[in-house]
Amino acid sequence: MEEKISVAEISRLREAAEEERKTHQTIMRKIKQQKTGEADLSPDEQMKIVKRGNATEIRSMLEAFGIKGTIDEKVQIYIYDNIIGYGEIREYMLENCQLCLNLEKRIIDKGMHKYGKKHISPQAEVYLLKQSLTKSRDLNDISYILEVEQYIARDELSQAGQVELMSYLDIGYGRDSLIDKCEQCVRDYIFKYKALSLEAQRLLIKSGNHNAIMDYIQESSKGLEAEDELMERGNRKEVEAYFKRYATM
């Protein structure tokens, strides 16, 4: 026998549905107003929307706020940590939104392959380079440098990232295999992108790494700009190579 629902229960369900409908419409209206600059959802309001678990609302909010970097840090981390029920939303956020530095660091710590193809912030690039080198040293495992290799193979570094990369030419201590791997990272970057900021060029020359310096003199798209530093270093082969390249530009 089919179970009958009472008139009172129908009334309660109708009231609950109407209340939810009004709440949803209010939220969607606020999100739309944000897109047009008429409103701004506070961090508390953002979190309330996320915890409601309505995928349409969350996706719309990410679209409205994410690229401008105004999604609150706690909201981003909540979405990242709550995989169940937030899978597609989480992936959208990682691929399309400007992430906070703390979340970028957490993702880097878990492995850059979990980050997808999105370019990371300059601060996160510096963190990636530092952490990869530290782990490679401490754990005697150069595979952590692969994270750096994979990243620079698909993305040009920011100026801050380029400066940090130059530290790979003078790591202070480490096994020969690590020293060689770090040097190769820098040389691969030079061959691929053929450009470094002036500060990075100065650090390149200061490192004294002849191979990498020669690579940059010969491969850079605009030539070496840190001429004073190169002349002060005074390496004959490098200076001759510099003027030979200079004459052809």
Structure overview:
It is a single chain. With 249 residues, the protein is an all-alpha fold. The protein has 14 helices and no strands. The protein has helices spanning 7-35, 43-52, 55-65, 73-81, 87-96, 101-110, 122-138, 145-154, 159-166, 176-193, 198-207, 210-219, 227-233, 236-247. The mean pLDDT is 91.
In terms of topology, how is this protein built?
Blueprint: H1 7-35, H2 43-52, H3 55-65, H4 73-81, H5 87-96, H6 101-110, H7 122-138, H8 145-154, H9 159-166, H10 176-193, H11 198-207, H12 210-219, H13 227-233, H14 236-247
Helix pairs in contact: 1-3, 2-4, 3-5, 6-7, 7-8, 7-9, 8-10, 9-11, 10-12, 12-14
Helix content: 55-70%
Helix/strand-derived category reads mainly alpha
Question: What is the CA–CA distance across the termini?
Answer: 91 Å
Largest sheet: none
Helix count equals 14
| Residues in β-strands, percent | under 5%
What characteristic shape results from the CA principal axes?
elongated
Query: On the 0-100 scale, what is the average pLDDT?
Result: 91
Spans of at least 5 consecutive residues with low confidence: none
What radius of gyration results from the CA coordinates? Answer: 26 Å
Q: Number of DSSP strands? A: 0
**Helix-strand pattern:** HHHHHHHHHHHHHH
